Amino acid sequence: MKKPLLGIIGGSGLYQMEGLADVRVIDADTPFGKPSSPIIIGNLQDKEVAFLARHGIGHFLLPS
After folding, report:
1. What pLDDT was estimated at residue 59?
2. Measured between alpha carbons, how far is 14 from 20 in angstroms, rounded to an integer?
3. Contacts 24+ apart (CB under 8 A), 52-59
4. 50: which of 1, 4, 21, 42 fits an S-S bond (Cβ 3.0–4.6 Å)?
5. What is the DSSP secondary-structure string of 1-64?
């Protein structure tokens, strides 16, 4: 698996990316804890990108 070319962090109102193909979901864990949501990886116009919903899926995390 190659690394994504671009990482996108979605803010308020952006919980998913339209147009992604070959989508994979990664439930990551880091030395700092779990991220706010699973990392979504897919192809967008033949480029591999990664997407993270900053406030969590459904906006349950405050921005602070």
Report:
1. 73
2. 14
3. 52/7, 52/8, 52/9, 52/10, 53/10, 53/14, 53/15, 53/16, 54/9, 54/10, 54/11, 55/11, 55/12, 57/15, 58/15, 59/12, 59/15
4. 4
5. -PPPSEEEEE-TT--S-TT-EEEEEE---BTTB--SSPEEEEEETTEEEEEEETTTTTT-S---
Mean pLDDT calculated for residue range 34-40: 89
Taking the C-alpha atoms of residue 35 and residue 38, their distance in angstroms, rounded to an integer, is 7
Q: What is the mean pLDDT of residues 29-51?
A: 91
Total Cβ atoms within 10 A of residue 8: 15
